[in-house]
């Protein structure tokens, strides 16, 4: 621990109990090397970056992912509690969920299968990518100097194709089922915090809505809705004869209500941190599915007055929410898409080359966790007044992830590499202007 910079010790001390001492030493080296590396995040490339700071045989570092005994789930629990304790705002904890495909080459890669690429696909044409599909649940956190919240990954689960599960005799779990398991874990880890989960239409299923309703006020689901959803009134009280009714009178479909209702103008927070003028129609109903039951919800129709965004239907399982709260919660979901893009640009997602089961299930989740670690370290340095580095361009006014990782990299070069006994005196002799040039060259944003 003596070699770990002071600002990183609270976070790393919270993770240390889940490793043996030799493994933890190697985890620290790999963690810091992954932050300093600007190319692929393979173990070989990380060790090349660390150089003499990675003592021991290189195979011992490879075994950290492939053979070492440690639990990613316990690490996720510790990281979740640390982030919520130090950076979570009071009130309900807002979580966002989505999936992303991590392309991976090789014929013998564990868990690899063909997945639809939602970015390149359209209604008439489907593009596929071969690799791993990760189901990610992140927490929205506001950092100093930012106009939008950042989505910090907390839980990452590998989705495996139905055909692969059938071949290996496993029960198939859909992305919705995996998200439900992730929410159960978070409810167990954070027993005193109410949760709000926001997902796109793939995670707005009736099953997930029914699951959140069972937990009452502890979990609220916000997602896209259907214009032709089957809505009903609440069933009448049981009269004592015959079978109890499970639903009341049928209500008009949301599209039918919108066609005849008067729209209410609103100005709401929009995608990317701006604001937008919209018109809304909202109502309360009970969503029914045979074999599952009723889910009480408030749905909202959203019309963008500017005409640049399609009309949409949203819903919340908490009927006390206003239309503005539902819209602003859903538009905040887009921050997880920004996280995926920034991870590919700056943290080397899709550059790992592990192929065995343990390495695959550990490498990419560790990179997602690295994103959260960068944000935590940057917030710590900013609070200490040492977050001076950044990446500037014309028109930029807010803090971005490029500022965060550049700051953390400069801090690591200064406090971890050059602060060692055999480097400290040499680095101190370099003129300050030359030192700045050196640090900017060593710590680029990409």
List keywords for this structure.
about 450 residues, alpha+beta, Transposase Inhibitor Protein From Tn5, Chain A, domain 1, 2 domains, 15 helices, 11 strands, about 40% helix
What is the domain total for the residues? 2
Strand portion, in percent? 15-25%
Total strands: the figure is: 11
**Poorly predicted runs of 5 or more residues:** none
Fraction of helical residues: 25-40%
| End-to-end distance | 29 Å
- Please state the second-level CATH architecture of the largest domain: Alpha-Beta Complex
Mean pLDDT: 91
How would you describe this protein?
The chain is an alpha+beta fold and 446 residues long. It has helices at 9-15, 21-36, 43-50, 58-66, 72-87, 162-167, 175-189, 206-214, 254-260, 323-331, 335-346, 357-383, 401-417, 421-429, 432-442; strands spanning 93-103, 113-116, 128-141, 150-159, 195-199, 219-224, 231-232, 264-269, 275-289, 293-304, 312-316. Strands 1, 2, 3, 4, 5, 6, 7, 8, 9, 10 and 11 form an eleven-stranded mixed beta sheet that branches. The chain is globular. The relative contact order is 0.14.
Describe, in short, the structure shown.
With 446 residues, the chain is of the alpha+beta class. It folds into 2 domains: 72-341, Transposase Inhibitor Protein From Tn5, Chain A, domain 1 (Alpha-Beta Complex); 388-446, no CATH class. The chain contains 15 helices and 11 strands.
Write the layout of secondary structure elements.
Elements: H1 9-15, H2 21-36, H3 43-50, H4 58-66, H5 72-87, E1 93-103, E2 113-116, E3 128-141, E4 150-159, H6 162-167, H7 175-189, E5 195-199, H8 206-214, E6 219-224, E7 231-232, H9 254-260, E8 264-269, E9 275-289, E10 293-304, E11 312-316, H10 323-331, H11 335-346, H12 357-383, H13 401-417, H14 421-429, H15 432-442
Parallel strand pairs: 1-5, 5-6
Antiparallel strand pairs: 1-3, 2-3, 3-4, 6-11, 7-9, 8-9, 9-10, 10-11
Helix pairs in contact: 2-3, 5-12, 12-13
